[in-house]
Amino acid sequence: MYTPDLYKNENPEEIRTFLKENSFGILINQTNGKLCATHIPIELEIKTEGKEILQGHISKLNPQTEGFKENDQVLAVFSGPHSYISSSWYDHENVPTWNYIAVHVYGRIKIVDYETSVDQLKKLVDKYEVHSKNPVRVEDLSAKTMREARGIFGFEIEIDEIQATKKLSQNRDDHNYKNIISELEKTENPQSIAVAKEMSKCRK
Length: 204
Prior knowledge:
It is a single chain. This protein is an alpha+beta fold. It has six helices and six strands. The protein has a six-stranded antiparallel barrel. Helix 5 runs antiparallel to helix 6. It starts with 11 loop residues before the first helix and ends with a helix.
């Protein structure tokens, strides 16, 4: 991912938090000479020995899985809030741009066994059911329903490299920076407001 130095995020804790809060990613690999991509939840986890990995699951019917046998190299892409930035918000003439946060994780994928896949499903469901009025638990599902889990491959991705971009108008002076935040907040667009919130965290 091309990222000018000004917009590189090299704070491990920030990146870790971002991945946990924006875990619906895009898994990309090459299968039969073509690039393939699948939109799926991909969770950051810590192994017992303290090593960080990504984990998730994918349908066995998905042709993308064929490529894992030939080449285990994959890219997982995670996107955060993003918004158009109008140059009319500056106190000088300039070009419009786009603010955004994104993380690319490069690594090697391996398929895990059924029991590990079910454990992954339990963690995933527990994470997203925590605020439910009547939370679903994988442990409570019938044997008939759990047969559906036989239709997926659970996987782990050993992380080789992380590239993180946080492009939030860092090149603007305080006056223009504050005005961008103000204009974003006026849009009533959830993505734009989220960008304004992130910008406010970066510069008080």
